[in-house]
Amino acid sequence: MVQIVSMVRTSENKIYRQGISDAKELTDGYPSRAEDLFAYQGLIIGSVEAGYFTPVQRELIREFVDRRGGGLLLLGGQFSLADGGWNASNLTDLLPTTLPLQTGTFHREADPKTGTTHTTAELAPAGVDSIITRLVDDPAANAAKWKQLPYLMDYEDPGTPKPGATVLADMITPEGRKLPLLITENFGRGRTAIMATGGSWRWQMSSPLGDTAHDLFWQQLLRWVVSDTPGHVAASVPAQMLLDNGAVTVTAEVRDPQYNPAPDAKVEAHVLGPSGVSALVEMTPVPDSPGQFQAAWSAPKTGSYLTEVTALRGGKELGRDVLTFQRVDGVAENFHTEQNRALLEHLASQTGGQYWKPADVGKLATSIPFSEAGVTVRETKDLWGLPLVFLVLVLLRFSEWWLRRKWGIV
């Protein structure tokens, strides 16, 4: 479940709050301290000019993405992106596009019933495999669904996507221009995105009753904004399935309340497994990686394991994280089907054989009889000592006598 806390600017010095947990939340407006802003996992900034935020707040937005690992989504609007002065702010490198330098990039469309052309959306190639833009499971039907969405009420030119950005959806303007509509990018520990319209509400209002496309899209986009945001402790293992080997390395990244690395923390991993397996493993700092901790352990039995990693500093808990892994025996050979050339060459040299490459297969037939490999035994026998040869000689002698007698020679 995603809980949304919103601030709406109703006048110059007044805001309207929704979804707050208590009466004190956001009473002073947009947070100006890291401990207040970093309590959230994602930020969505609508039609708000960059100048609305103080220099401290703008720097906190950067740190929220880069250091906190949160998600940032900017929407198109009359006072957003280039028209909101974001192209002249110190956050331009944070955005997934290079914003236009000029203003006047925001456009509002009229009702097509008046004869005015309008802006439509379509799926970009990268959006075919993205969970954010999947409105139906079938790829062809999904692409068709995007083209059938109602026209956008407004749009804004988001500029040119940066080399590391991904365009998931495009829009076709009344002039026939194709502009990026939804662009995403990873930045630091977090991620950023631009949805270059504030008028996607028409997908809900102008669609047939029961059409869930608008709701589904925004649910998936919001989950992307917040889902990968780490806590103060982020634990991981190289693989969640251990194949025929119980050895596992647990890694944890520990951050303090301001999400700075906490190398002085005391970190422990409590492992629970099948048949009452329980272990408390102390994790040690990783050299040259402040805030990183590791612990090596071996799962003694097959089955599922649950591990809770806890970090303390000065007797106070910084945070905790839970992960799972499973040990499965007897299946490793099913997952390692690629050729192990080094092993094959070693076996061949130890047994007196030879490793053959595909280009040398033509020589294989002539080389087999002369192999000196240990599995080949050469045995030489005297031809005249074989019983079969003796029997043939006796039959020949008898046949000669029988023919002579039949012909009356003897």
Q: What is the topology, as strand order, of the major beta sheet?
A: 13-15-18-17-16-19-20-14
Q: Can you write the helix and strand succession as a string?
A: EEHEHEEEEHEEEEEHHEEEEEEEEHHHH
> How is the biggest beta sheet arranged?
8 strands, mixed
The percent range for helix content is 10-25%
The total of beta strands comes to: 20
CATH class of the largest domain: Alpha Beta
How much strand content do the residues show? 25-35%
End-to-end distance: 113 Å
Provide structural commentary:
With 410 residues, this protein is α+β, with helices and mostly antiparallel strands. It folds into 4 domains: 31-227, Class I glutamine amidotransferase (GATase) domain (Rossmann fold, 3-Layer(aba) Sandwich); 233-328, Immunoglobulins (Immunoglobulin-like, Sandwich), CATH 2.60.40.10; 338-379, no CATH class; 381-410. The protein is built from 9 helices and 20 strands. The longest helix is centred in the C-terminal third of the chain and has 21 residues, at 387-407. The protein is elongated and about 140 Å long. The termini are far apart.
Concise account of the structure shown:
With 410 residues, this protein is α+β, with helices and mostly antiparallel strands.
Please tag this protein with its features.
Immunoglobulin-like, about 400 residues, Rossmann fold, six-stranded mixed sheet, alpha+beta, eight-stranded mixed sheet, 9 helices, 20 strands, 4 domains, elongated
What is the secondary structure topology, with strand pairs?
Layout: E1 6-11, E2 14-18, H1 34-37, E3 42-45, H2 55-66, E4 71-75, E5 97-98, E6 106-108, E7 120-123, H3 139-147, E8 154-156, E9 160-161, E10 166-172, E11 178-187, E12 190-195, H4 202-205, H5 213-227, E13 233-236, E14 241-243, E15 247-254, E16 266-272, E17 278-285, E18 292-298, E19 303-313, E20 316-328, H6 332-335, H7 341-351, H8 364-367, H9 387-407
Parallel strand pairs: 3-4, 4-12, 14-20
Antiparallel strand pairs: 1-2, 5-9, 6-8, 7-10, 10-11, 11-12, 13-15, 15-18, 16-17, 16-19, 17-18, 19-20
